[in-house]
Prior knowledge:
Elements: E1 4-8, H1 16-22, E2 28-32, H2 37-40, E3 44-49, E4 52-58, H3 59-64, H4 71-76, E5 79-81
Parallel strand pairs: 1-2, 2-3, 4-5
Antiparallel strand pairs: 3-4
Amino acid sequence: IADTDIFIAAAAAGQLPRVLEAIDGQPVLTVADSPGAARQGAALNMAVVQNKVSFEANLRAARAAHLNLSSKLLRLATEVIQ
Length: 82
């Protein structure tokens, strides 16, 4: 379980690199809702596709934050970045 969770809203997507740098190596779950956020380093990136919530998972980012994403969670992801 993460010590802290951070949600980066689409309006603040430009600040994502700065936020990630500030928490580098800390056990913080980062969640965003912006196209490309998972590829930029957010652990989870939410989206609405055909009126359904979906998400991408960045396994590398989660591991760097010393977090484990369960295999059950990863199976639900539309994309897993390793």
